[in-house]
Specification:
The structure holds 2 protein chains of 2 kinds. Chain A is an alpha/beta fold. Chain A is built from 9 helices and 10 strands. In chain A, helix 3 links the parallel strand 2 and strand 3. The termini of chain A are far apart. Chain B is of the alpha/beta class. Chain B has 4 domains: about 230 residues, P-loop containing nucleotide triphosphate hydrolases (Rossmann fold); about 90 residues, Elongation Factor Tu (Ef-tu), domain 3, CATH 2.40.30; about 110 residues, Translation factors (Elongation Factor Tu (Ef-tu), domain 3, Beta Barrel), CATH 2.40.30; about 180 residues, Rossmann fold. Chain B has 20 helices and 28 strands. The chains are: A alpha/beta, B alpha/beta. Chains A and B meet through helix 1, helix 2, helix 7 and helix 8 of A and helix 2, helix 4, strand 2, strand 3 and helix 7 of B.
Chain lengths: ~300, ~625
Amino acid sequence: MTQSFTHLRRLEAESIHILREVVAEAERPVMLYSIGKDSAVMLHLAKKAFYPAPPPFPLLHVDTTWKFRDMYALRSKAAEEAGMELLVYQNPEAKARGINPFDHGPLHTDMWKTEGLKQALDLHGFDAAFGGARRDEEKSRAKERVFSFRSTNHRWDPKNQRPELWHLYNARKAKGESMRVFPISNWTELDIWQYIHLEGIEIVPLYFSAPRPTVERDGLTLMVDDDRFPLNTGEVPVMKSIRFRTLGCYPLTGAVESTAKTLPEVIQEMLLTTTSERQGRAIDKDQAASMEKKKQEGYF
Amino acid sequence: MSQIYKTDELIASDIDAYLEVHQHKTMLRFITCGSVDDGKSTLIGRLLYDSKMIFEDQLAALEADSKKVGTQGQEIDFALLVDGLAAEREQGITIDVAYRFFATEKRKFIVADTPGHEQYTRNMVTGASTADLAVILIDARKGVLTQTRRHSYLVKLIGIKNVVLAVNKMDLVGYDQTIYDSIVADYTAFATSIGITNFTAMPISGFKGDNITANSENMPWYHGPALLPHLETVEVDATSDQAKPFRMPVQWVNRPNLDFRGFAGLIATGTIAQGDQIRVLPSGKTSHISRIVTLDGDLPQAVAGQSVTLCFADEIDCSRGQLITAAGAPTEVSDQFETAIVWMDEAEMLPGRPYWLKIGTQTVSATVGQPKYQVNVNTMEHLAAKTLDLNAIGVCNVTTDRAIPFEAYGDNHDLGGFILIDKMTNATVAAGMIHFSLRRAQNVHWQATDISRENHAGIKNQKPAVLWLTGLSGAGKSTIANIVERKLARMNRHTFLLDGDNVRHGLNKDLGFTDVDRVENIRRVGEVAKLMTDAGLIVITAFISPFRAERDMVRAMMQPGEFIEVHIDTTLDEAEKRDVKGLYKKARAGQLKNFTGIDSPYEAPETPEMRIDTTKLSAEQAADAIIARLIP
């Protein structure tokens, strides 16, 4: 009697295989946990990979202090339920200089996220970091390896990546070098949503529509999540029924107007939509090929 | 604009029903083989576009880009959708493997998009290694070309069983059936000659969309399937893996507490159920399955393609790298193989040098023999070769430092496919496929002798050792080695001096100074030195031995503590100033090739047992220091 597998079960088995390879071969792995839907799926797969043991590595959140409040609420809950240690890192220099998305533009991402990540990895001596990036997200990601090799200063050299054949991943590296590993490389946005639906994975409520206070900036609908948002004189946030397709720093993440309150409704909207997922991200538009450049500098 | 592929009305009308359908989709991974000129990127862009994977913001960017850098005038250049990295755009070529995703209501597709030029053979092999199907593109105006033959050979080599021959750009030959028929006839003749017996041919136009999503009205004479419907329905042999005997390489031993010990892995082939008898290889220990553990509860049975955790009824040894098999149908175990090797590194293959070999979940040390032959990927001719360069494919024997369970690649990709990793740079330097085990390993037995190496050394009243002197030409190795041997002889020690120049007059007179020959030179000297230590001798060697990997290889041959690496250290300037044999002068004048320090590298030892600074010590003093280290 043969069983036939759905695409989701094949993807799940492949991701679990990758997670286990890293744990078997790396000295100090860590999972980068950004609290978004992709992270939620990655964490869920980790629980499956190592059951009945808890995942044998900590979660690391490279914090910018500018995430949505709902994200911070889910962060500790998710770590606790998985039985994992949660490490939160905030770049002290960015903190001291008061780097923020309103006044500092691209420097905000560079200092809090790119630099913050490098500092956190160096501080703890992590030699392999799981990330929830997918190949369908963006052009330069389409060529990213599952095991992405980084030099001692965390740089990604697109011309010097190791060939990956069959299910064989080369995790060998010299001291000081590290790997970024992407277990959900072959998942698409729709796969992620379907899997969340199928497995009943908890995600941040911001993915579902609700009335929220908003303002318009540069063509993006932004949510006023706390009183740090600099309003123009006389400006009053407008309540709108909105939700988010991706989550990042709240002043940089555009919302979509929506009435989707359940997962099937969210998926329905996604399938009928005519714009891509990262369209709501201000960070990708800084310059042509901007993601590729960020990755070379060490952004995960 | 062409038709959009079957927009699904269910999405709008009944999302729950839609999700139910889509959760039961299967998956197909395929590779497209062709060069830029064959319209490969255009075809992939077309598939993404027609299956609605292109969003409005991407389409707007695409339209703008098409006008700016496109090659299709005012029309949309689909190729721009998939030509990723900025560097590639500038060069107008694809230089890596990119993975694309699209889905229809029947299947999810993963496309490996790889370049077709000969210098990117390694990228194509990489993309092909995970593919269930290959689409080989031919430009209808050009017919079967050298590159078509190359792509087909690689597809056959990697063992992709489903092949689609897509004769593209039919719009540019007036949708002419006779042209199509003659190309298919040409290809059939070639394909049969290399063992591709079954393929599906179809006439298409990626640019115009003919025979992509539906049969084209421009070619009423064609009655076969259009491309996308074919990809949606072609039988994938994933289920045939389940009919094979059970095999699962152990990835990780799960031991959260004393009461639980499980073996985690991805099942390569076969089926396993609670109570089944298993055998662990290479140890051969047997037990039976007590539990199949997953987060969603224990399973009564699991099959190929599932990631599971198995528990045994008995406490038997089992660890990462070992193979769990059906007790009654274990695999062969061997340490010598005939293999096909695809070389993927800029640095050439060095026969005799140890590399890491990763197969399944196991990593062992292995050496590759000199190629039996290299294959010309354009003509399939067999060529004589001493080594393999980047993108070269050859048949070579591989020897591992211990016996490993395996299956022939043709029977099992997971247990017969391997990669080679450079021990110094950690780069993945080759992909390999096991043909079969060389029975030699089982037939050449070690002849036990009565007089042991301890007896040999005991008669001589000494401890055997290898004093390995390494350093640049002219550093003083031979001079110092000679003084060391003279002094040891005076102390009634039994010694033998192996000198680089002398050995090259006899044992190694067939070897030159290329990297390949240098590695073999040192390997032979290492083996001879090993025999001499077995005979109880103190061996002194004086070889430049420029590569760390080979010195480490010789070290690994010896008993622990017997190998004493002595770096005769001098600066290049100093050695060149001395130039006792006049070789530096010749090398500088270009009369001597591959000279260490000039146009061939010297890798200084990182942690030698001794370092002799010849700018501070005389040869006599150096010899005394070495003897003091040997006989404290």
